[in-house]
Amino acid sequence: MTGLAILDIARDGIVTFLKVAGPLMIVALIVGLAVSLFQALTQIQEQTLIYVPKIVAVFAALLFMLPFMGDALASYMGRIAERIASGG
C-alpha cells in the first residue's frame, strides 16, 4: 500500500466523519447559541440551563439523522472492505 493510498483512505475517513458528526455539532451550536442569547437577554446566570435543551436537541437530531449517518458509515465500510479485498 502506497502513501498516496493511505492518504486517500484517511481523507475519505475524515470526510465521512464530518458528514456523520457535522449535523449534530451544528444543532448543538445553534441550540447553545440560542440558550446563551436567552440567558443574556433575561440575565439568568444559571450554568446548568444550557445542558438540557442541548441534550434534547442533539438527541432529536440524532434520531432524525440516524438513517443518513448509518448509510454514510456503511458506504465508508464498503469502500474500505473493497480496498482490502482488492489487495490495496
Automatic annotation (TrEMBL):
One of its GO terms (biological process) is protein secretion. The chain crosses the membrane at residues 20-41, 48-69. GO terms for cellular component: bacterial-type flagellum basal body; plasma membrane. It is a multi-pass membrane protein. Pfam families: Bac_export_3. It is found in: Cell membrane; Bacterial flagellum basal body. Keywords: Bacterial flagellum, Cell membrane, Cell projection, Cilium, Flagellum, Membrane, Transmembrane, Transmembrane helix. Role in flagellar biosynthesis. Belongs to the FliQ/MopD/SpaQ family. This is Flagellar biosynthetic protein FliQ. The gene is fliQ.
